Amino acid sequence: MFGDLFEAEEDAETSLNQASGRVHGLESPPPPRLPSGLCGIKNQGATCYLNSLLQTLLYTPEFRESLFQLGPKDLGCLQDKDKPGSKVRVIPIQLQRLFARLLLCNQQTASTTELTDSFGWTNNESLQQHDVQELNRILFSAIEDSLVGTARQSLIQELYHGTIVNKIICQECGRTSERQEDYLDLPVTVVDTGSLEEGLCNCFVEMETMDGKNQYRCEGCNRLVNARKGARLKSLPPILTFSLLRFSFDFVKMERYKETGKFTFPREIDMGLFCDDPEDADTLYELFSVVIHTGSGFGGHYHAYIRDVDNLGKWTAPENAEICLPTDPSTGKVDYIEFESPVELVQALLSREGRQGMPVDKLCTEMVKQTGVSWNKRFKKTYGPINKFLKKFDDKFVLNSDVNWVYLQEYTGCLQGSNPVGQSLSHDVNNQRSREGGNKVSVHAHNENQQQKCNKMTEKTSCGVTPSEEGHCWFDFNDSRVQSIHEREIEKQFSGRESAYMLFYRKKSMVRSEAAKHDPTHGMPESLIQEVMRENKEVDRKREEYDIAVNKITVKIFFGDQHEFIAGAIQAIPDSLSFMEIPLDRRKTVGELKMLILEECGELVPPKFELSFVKELPAGLHVYDLLTAADSVICQDAYICDGTYFMLWDGVQIQGESIPTGVATEPVYLNVTYGNPSQLSQGFPKNCTLGELKLMLGELTPIDPENLKLCQLVTKDDTTSAVPFSPIDEGKTLEELRLKDGDNLIAEDTKETSSVAKDSLLKKSNKLILEVENRCQDHSAMDAYPVTTVEIDRETRVSDLKAVIMSAFTISSVPGGGRLRVEDSNLGLRPPLHEEQDVVTAGLKSGQHVVIQPGSPPLTDQMTLTFTPGSPSDDLQDLEIMVKKSCTVQQCMEEMVQKAGFSGDNWHLRKTNWCGEAGEILDDVASSLEQCDIKDGDHLLLEEGRVPPKGYLQLPVYFLKTNKDRNEGMLSWIATGISGLFGGGSGDKSDLSSSSSSTPAQAEFTSIGEVIIGKKDTLVELKLQILSLPALNDAVVPTLNYMRVRLKVKDRLTAVLRGNQQTLQRLKVTSASQLCVQLLQEEESLSPSQILLHVCQRIPESLTYAPYQEILWDAARDASPYALRQTIADAFLVPVERIVIAKHFPEKFEWMVLKDTDKANKTIKHRGKKGRGSNSPKKDNLRQAPYHLKDGDVIGVKDLATDPLDQDDFKTEEDFIGLENLRQAIEEKKRRRKNRAVTGAADGCTVQRRPEVGLTIKVDSFR
Question: What gap in Å lies between CA 136 and CA 244, rounded to an integer?
C-alpha cells in the first residue's frame, strides 16, 4: 500500500527530486510525461488503492463526460466554499479538476491532495491502508450525495446500478416469493472457484434446496415445506463491476489470508446466462479495467491494467519501447544508476559506442564505473553470467563469442560492408536531449542516414509484434508510472500474490464516436482547459528558471597584483580590491569564462594572464594548479564548479616574489612563542623539514638557529606539557610530524638557563578561567543575573571554588548552603557538583559557565538524577531528585513516583541515550543504581506499565529489504512479500530508494512484530522464535544460516549477531535493542574478525552516492587502511591506487578519510624462535581508535580517475544540511535554556500522536 513497495524502483520523479532537490531555493520542477503520453498519480503514502480506482473512473468515458457536463450552476464555485450558507459541491469539482489535469497537464504525475482534502481527510488518512472495494462503494455514495439536486444526480445509478431478484420456490404448491435488491458491484467468491463464469453460476444459476431443519414456511401452504432458493440478475448496468473475494479467514491459524489460487476471467462475457428475463437483450460485456492487488492479507500495493477506450495514449510494444535515459539535472549527464532493468542498462551503455560495439570485459568495466555495482553483484543471481544473458536476449544484442565482442542488434544491419568504427550516438543523444528540453534522452535518436540503413533490421526485430487495435490498447497505471503492456499480460493476474482484485466490464454496444477518439478535451468545459493550460505555462516557466539556476555558478577571482606573499601565504594588500565574484553558466566554455573576466574586471586584468586554482587556508591563500583546459572545454568538464577560487596572475610571481604552488607546499598555520615572551603566527610549508623550520625561525626571532630548541605544547588528560622534538625529527617534514593548523610551538634558546616563554605558557595553561553567574538573587528586579570571571588553579577543590565565587559576588550566605552547577550550551544545567572533589575531577574546564544557586550540594554517597514523568505527550516538566548511590531501582522509582505526584506501582524506569531517546529498561528492580551503571547526572524515563519478567527481553523485530532484494535470489519473493505485508503498519522507512541519493547507505525497514525471549537463550532460539512470527509463516528458510539477525539503532544497521550457540546476554542484546532480520542468498557463518560494511561509490561531480554494496572484510591478517582499500578496489574492479575511502559518522555528519599514516615508516621488533629480532612495519588498525570500524559502518569510495579534486571531501548535501541543522539546534537550545533559566519552564516538546481512523468521506448535506 505504501507507494511502490513491490516495485524495483521508485518513480522517476522521486529519483529526480532526490538527486536534485532544491537549487538556489528553487524546487525541482516536475518531469514531463513518459512516452506513453498518459499521466500518473502521485502516491501520498498509502493511496495506491485510491489512485487505481481514480484512473479506472477517468478512463470510463461515460463517467468522465457525465461529470464534465456539470457546470457552476450545478456545482457552485470553489471560491465560495467558505462563505456562510453557500452549498458548493467540492468533491465533484475537485474530481473534474483532477481529471482535467490527468488528461492535459504536461507532467508525469498529478496530485490528489486537493481531492483528498475535499474528502475531509485532515488526520493523515492518506497514510492508512484501505481496501479498494470498500473505497469504491464509499466514493460512489459520496458522489451520489454530492450530486443531489443537480442535472446528473442519477449519474451513479445510470452507469453502475443493477438489481438482483432473490427467489424462493415452494416445492409443494409452486408459489414463488421474490425480493429485489440493488447492487453497484457483484461480489464473486474466489475460494474453490476456477473462473468468473463458474463463480457467477454458483451465485445466479444454481439453486439451494431448503429442507430438513432449514425448511421454508410457505404462506400459501401455511406450513414448513421443502423449497428451492436462488438469485438471478434482474437488470444490468452499462458498467458492470466485479469484486473478487480473495481475502478469507483461517480459523485454524486464526488469521487473515489471501487466496492466491488460479481464477480466470474472460475478455468478453455474456451475462444473459445469469439474468432472469432481462429487460433488454444487450448482455454482452467486454473487459476494460483490472485492479490488481500485490501482497498478502495484511497489506500490499494496488495498480491497474486499463484499456484506453478513446485512444488517448501512445501505445508502443513494450519490447520495442524507447529506452529513456534519466539524467542528473545538475550535470546534464545520463544517470546510469537509475536503471533497474539489465536490458535497458546494457542498451544504454552500448548505445554510446554506436555501431562499434565493445568487448564484453569493457562492458562490465563500464557498468561498474557508471553504476558502482558489478554485473555479478547486481544481476548474476537472477540473469546468470553476462554472456548467457546476452545470448538469451539475442533480439536486442549480438554476441560474437569468438572475439567476445557485443553489439546492439539494431546496428548489425549497418555493419555489413561498413566501417566498424562508425559514428558514436553521443552526439545524437545530446541533440535529442536539447530538443526535448527535459530530463530524458533517447538511445534511439538516430540521424536519417542511420535510420535508412537500419530499416530492414528494424523490421526484422519488430516482426511478430502486432500493434493493438484502436480502443484495445492496454496500459499499466502504477501510481506515477504509466506504461504500455500486451493484453496477454492480464493472464498473469489470474493467480499468485499479484492477482486481479476488481474487474470492470462495459457493454460492448457502447461504441465511442470518432470525435471522442484521440481527443482528451472531448466534452471538457473550456474553463477547465484554460485552467490547465495556465498551469502548464507556469510549469514551463519553472523548468526554464530551474534550468538556469541549476547551471548557475559563482567563481571568485583574486587579483595577483593586489596581493603579497607574507607570513608564509598570500595575503591581500590592505584597502585594495583583492577579489571579484563573477556569476556564469557552467555550460559556458573556458574561453567564454576568460572573456567574461575581461569584461567584468576591466583594467584589473593584465595584458597576459594565467588562471590558477586557489584555496583559502588558515594561513592565507595558496595556489594550486594552472587552468590548462583548452578554451573550447566546458567549464564543468574543466572541474570549475560553484565556489571555485582563481588567482589571476602571471603564473610565476606576485609582487616580484616567486610563489610556491601545489599540494606539497600547502602552509601549516603555527603559533610560535619565544623570548620574554613574544609570539608569532604564520604559515610554514608542510613539506619543509623541522631543520628548515628552525632556520626560518632563526630569521624571524632573535634566537640563533644552532641554539634553537623546539617544543610542542600537548594537552593530554587535562594536563598540558611541553614535549621537545627529538634529534631524529630534524629530517621529518611538518606533515610527517602531524603538525596541523593552530598548533602551538615553543622556541627556546639553549644558552638561556631558564625559559620565560615556556614557564609563562605552561603556567597559563595550568590555570582555569571560568565564567560564573550568580542565581542566588531575585531575578525580577534585574534584566539578567550578574556574571563575572574567576581564575583558579587546577588543584582547587569545588568547595573552595564556591567560596571564591561567593567572595567575587560579595555573598555572605545562600539558602541551603548553595551549590555549583555547570551550564552547557547544548545540555543546559548539569547536575550539582560534589564539593569534596577538585575542579579537574569534577570535570571543569577553562571557559565553562558555572552557576551558583540556592540549594544543598550532593553528599559524597549521593547522585543527582533527572527524569521525565509519564508519556512525553503529557508535556510534563522534567524533574530532579537526589538519591543515594546504593539505593535500589525500586526505591528510586518509588521516590520518582512520589516526586511526580503519581500513585500506584504500575511503573517502570528506562535509561536514555546521550540524546535523550529511550534506552534499556531497568527490569532488575532489586539491583542498586551503581550495579545498573546509573551515574550522576543521568536522565531516566518514568513510564507506565510493568516490565517483562526478570531475565527476559521484549524485542521489536524488523524485516530488512536491501536494494538487491528487489531482483536477486531464490528468496527475493519472500523479501518482497514481507515488505508488502506490513507496508502500512508501524514500520518505518529510511528513504532509502535504490536510486542514487545524497544519503549514502539506504535500506527499508518493515516492522513484523515482537518476541519475548530470555537473556540466556541462544541465537538459534532467537532465530526460531522470529521465524514463528505470522509475517514469516510463508518463509521457506533452508537452514538458519540463511538468516542474518542484526541490531538496529535508529534507522541504521549495526552489529551482526554471530555464533548460533551464543547467548543473547553475551551478544549484548538488551531490552533497548531492536532486531533486524535479513534473508540471505547463501549460507553465512561470520567469524569475529569479519566486518560487514556498507560501501557506496561517490558519483563524480555530484554530492550523491550510488546504492551501497554489502562487503565482508576479513581483518584477521591485516586490519590496515590499505588492506581495506584493496578489498574495496577488488570489489569495484579498479586499481587500488585510484581510490580514496572514508568512514561516515552520521551523527556528526562528518567523514574520516582512511589512509595509512606515518606509522608505516616505523618498525616494531619481534623475537624469533632463536631469539633473533625481526623488524616489521607498524600499521594502523582500523578496528582501534580513532577509526573503530565495525559492522554497519558506511564507507564512501571516490575514484580519482573521475573525481580527482578535493580528494578528502566526501560530504553529501544531507551532511551540509545536517551540520546547519545541528548549528541551528544548538542556537535554539541555548535560547530555550536561557528562557528556562529565566522562567523555569520545562524544556520539552509535545508529541502529537495520530489517532487511527477508518475510511470515511465527509459530504455536506445538499438535500
Answer: 13
Q: How far apart, in whole angstroms, are the C-alpha atoms of residue 30 and residue 42?
A: 11
Distance CA 359, CA 364 (A): 9
- Sequence-distant (6+) residues with CB within 8 A of 1108 are 963, 1000, 1001, 1002, 1094, 1095, 1096, 1194
Nearest alpha-carbon partner for 1095 in 1072, 1128, 1069: 1128
Cell numbers describing residue 1115: 581483518
Cell of 372: 558502482
- How far from 647 is each of 564, 579, 866, 1123, CA to CA, in Å? 12, 9, 56, 39
CATH code for the structural domain at 553-664: 3.10.20.90
Calpha distance 476→301 (Å, rounded): 14
Side chain identity at 649, as an amino acid letter?
W
Handedness of CA 113, 114, 118, 122 (dihedral sign): positive
Task: Select from 109, 34, 32 the least CA-distant residue to 322.
Answer: 34
Alpha-carbon radius of gyration of the chain? 38
Looking at every residue in the chain, the average pLDDT score rounds to: 81
Pairing state of beta strands 552-559 and 645-649?
Answer: parallel
Going from the C-alpha of 126 to that of each of 111, 115, 622, 1260, the distances in angstroms are 12, 11, 55, 21
Contacts of 132 (CB under 8 A, 6+ apart): 49, 50, 52, 53, 291, 293, 302, 501, 502
CA-to-CA separations, 724 to 128, 736, 761, 1217, in angstroms, rounded: 68, 16, 14, 42
Spatial distance between the Cα atoms of 966 and 968, rounded to a whole number of angstroms: 6
DSSP string, 560-582: GGGEEEETTEEEEPTTS--EEEE
Q: Mention the CATH class of domain 667-762.
A: alpha beta
CATH architecture assigned to 342-408: 2-Layer Sandwich (3.30)
Asked if residues 317 and 484 have their Cβ atoms less than 8 Å apart, the reply is yes
In degrees rounded to 5, what are phi and psi of residue 800?
-70, -35
The pLDDT tens digits of the residues spanning 670-698 come to: 999 887 778 899 999 999 999 999 999 98
Work out the widest C-alpha separation in the chain, in whole angstroms.
135
Based on DSSP, count helices (H) and strands (E) in the chain, helices before strands: 28, 59
What residue spans define the domains of the chain? 342-408, 553-664, 667-762, 766-778+785-860, 1090-1157+1180-1232
**DSSP character for 30?**
P
pTM over 0.85? The answer is no
Taking 70 as the threshold, does the pLDDT of residue 23 lie above it?
no
The answer to whether the Cα torsion of 176, 182, 188, 189 is positive or negative is: negative
The mean per-residue pLDDT over the stretch 1043-1057 comes to: 88
Same CATH fold assignment for domains 553-664 and 766-778+785-860: yes
The C-alpha cell that represents 638 in the structure block: 574543466
301 given a catalytic annotation: yes
What is the reported pLDDT for 979? 46
Distance CA 375, CA 398 (A): 18
Domain 1090-1157+1180-1232, CATH: 3.10.20.90
Do residues 425 and 352 make contact, with C-beta atoms less than 8 angstroms apart?
yes
Structure confidence at residue 969 (pLDDT): 45
> What is the SS3 assignment for 132?
helix
pLDDT of residue 623: 94
CA distance 1107 to 1196: 11
**Assigned CATH class of 766-778+785-860:** alpha beta
Catalytic residue among 39, 48, 203, 275: 48
Measured CA angle at 372 (ends 333, 1042), to 5 deg: 145
Q: What is the pLDDT of residues 858-883, one digit of tens each?
A: 999 999 999 988 765 566 788 899 99
> Is the distance from CB of 324 to CB of 440 less than 8 angstroms?
yes
User: What is the model's pLDDT at position 60?
Assistant: 95
Q: How far apart are the first and last CA of the chain?
A: 36
The whole-number pLDDT of residue 924 equals 82
Catalytic residue, chosen from 301, 303, 446, 1144, is 301
What pLDDT, in 10s, does the model give residues 881-921?
999 989 999 899 999 998 888 888 888 888 887 767 778 88
